[in-house]
Amino acid sequence: MRILITGTTGYIAKRLALQLVEDGHELICCVRDLNRIPDEIEEHPKCSFIKIDFLSPKEAVIPKDIDVAYYLIHSMATNFYDFENLERKCAQNFKDLIEKTTIKQVIYLSGIVNDDSLSKHLKSRLQVEQTLHSDQYGLTTFRAGIIVGSGSASFEIIRDIVEKLPIMITPKWLNTKSQPIGIRDVLTYLSNAIGKQALYNHSYDIYGPEILTYKEMLLHFAEVRILKRYIITLPVLTPKLSSYWLYFVTSTSFQLAQALVDSMKVEVIGKPSNINKHIQIEPMTYKTAVNLAFQKIQQNSVISSWKDAVSSGVFKDQLSKYIELPQFGCFKDVRSRKVNNEDITLNKIWSIGGRTGWYSFNGLWKIRGYVDKLFGGVGLRRGRTHDTYLEPGDPLDFWRVLFADKNEKRLLLFAEMKLPGEAWLEFKIVKDKLYQRAVFRPKGVWGRLYWYMVLPFHAFVFKGMINALVETK
Asked: CA 137, CA 161: separation in Å to the nearest integer?
């Protein structure tokens, strides 16, 4: 079938796209930025790409001959106070465009909405579902709760909490019940629903076989990791304090922490249906999903992460707007060294950050990460999705990858830390010479003062980094 998929660079869609092409379908992938097409499908003969922003589609053209479309756009982490309007507008624009095609079915992944008092996030999910209903096509909605898989927001947040805190003083919402579901099962529901007319214009809750509190999920996670953990819940933490607690303990952004805390107060228990017979699936247990996630992590083969979304940081625009280093009105730290072994240096550059660190004065980088976190930035906790592989759009500690091409021997990063200006860091090899450029475009007097405050540290931090990159040891 000819399938249109939205949110191609997102956590779910990136994995689903790989599943669909393996199943032999032809994909039309919608992306906001053509520089962020996932490498795994960029050259695939069954994939084509359309540049479109559903918040402002303007003159976007979608092919007429489409059989099925997936609506996988989510604005939860962008603006806690306005994501409801953003999601409604996206859904309406998508519907207006898709109704002009030969579409037969739209498949939408939503959230379980059975509680009497829904969070803003879940109300928005239900609102999108209502917006997508049409007489022109059949809408199939799958409503999921907590999704467990390598790179998922819930998995990474639970992992942060369990692996860092032997004793946890936690908010009372840890006693809220939920029905987690493995990412592999979610992909099975989504991919096996194609063309099934019995599922048209129906909504189905999808969930794993267990009802667990968030506290039980943390303890089960600890059992899988063979860790002893103690949890004390307090009834006094307000939603605001809970959001700060989640933000400082984990790698999540503060906007996402607010949305998650708002949602975690609501029980997410699925309603039974006959969907498992239609899809022919027996969902896995929570511990099985956690074990499978760690197999992917240990093999360094995590396909996608919630952190890949630009909304997981402070970056708001398309990457292409920042891909060339600015020349005017900037402060620069430019260094160069002779490269003795190009392969070794390139491998070091492509492994920078995350668990590897920054090769020189890692303690200072960590302090800068803590300071950034205190001021509401992303800090260093995001790390990186892969240890040795980078592509445009990837998060890298408190940077975002703008350009990564080993053949061109160039890596360009844009700073997502809290700054009174904009910052770039570039590594490029030209004729056996490594050029390392740190560029800062200040905003106002504070930006200039900031540059001169950190300038003394550049003398040894950036010098030590480039020296380590060209070493052959």
From this structure: 43
Contact present, 27 and 3 (Cβ < 8 Å): yes
234, part of any domain: yes
Under 8 Å between Cβ of 142 and 113: no
If we measure between CA atoms, which residue out of 36, 39, 7, 34 comes closest to residue 303?
Answer: 39
- Confidence band of 393 (pLDDT split at 50, 70, 90): confident
User: d(Cα 305, Cα 389) in Å, to the nearest integer?
Assistant: 14
| Residue 29 CB coordination number (10 Å) | 24
Strands (E), 223-378: 230-234, 331-338
Phi/psi of residue 151, nearest 5 degrees: 90, -10
258 and 113, same structural domain?
A: yes
Q: Is 384 helix (H, G, I), strand (E, B) or coil?
A: strand
**Residue 29 resides in a domain:** yes
Residue 306 lies in a domain: no
Task: Check whether 328 has a pLDDT greater than 70.
Answer: yes
User: Comparing C-alpha atoms, which of 141, 144, 153 is closest to residue 180?
Assistant: 144
End position of a domain, from candidates 274, 301, 328: 301
| Nearest by Cα to 180 from 205, 159, 163 | 205
Please name the residues in contact with 3: beta carbons below 8 A apart, sequence gap of 6 or more: 20, 25, 26, 27, 28, 66, 67, 68, 69, 70, 194
Shared domain check, 340 and 266: no
Residues 326 and 288 in one domain: no
Q: Which of 132-141, 318-327, 439-448, 452-461 has the lowest mean pLDDT?
A: 318-327
**What's the CATH number where 139 sits?**
3.40.50.720
pLDDT band at 162 (very low <50, low <70, confident <90, very high): confident
Domain boundary among 235, 268, 301: 301
Sign of the CA dihedral running 294, 296, 298, 300:
negative
| pLDDT at residue number 324 | 66
CATH code for the domain of 460: 3.30.530.20
Which residue range forms the structural domain that includes residue 253? 2-301
> Count of alpha carbons within 13 Å of 170, Cβ hemisphere only?
25
Report if residue 64 sits inside a domain: yes
Say yes or no: 259 and 373 in one domain.
Answer: no
Return the structure tokens found at 208.
């794993």
d(CA 143, CA 133): 15
Structure tokens at 370: 């803590």
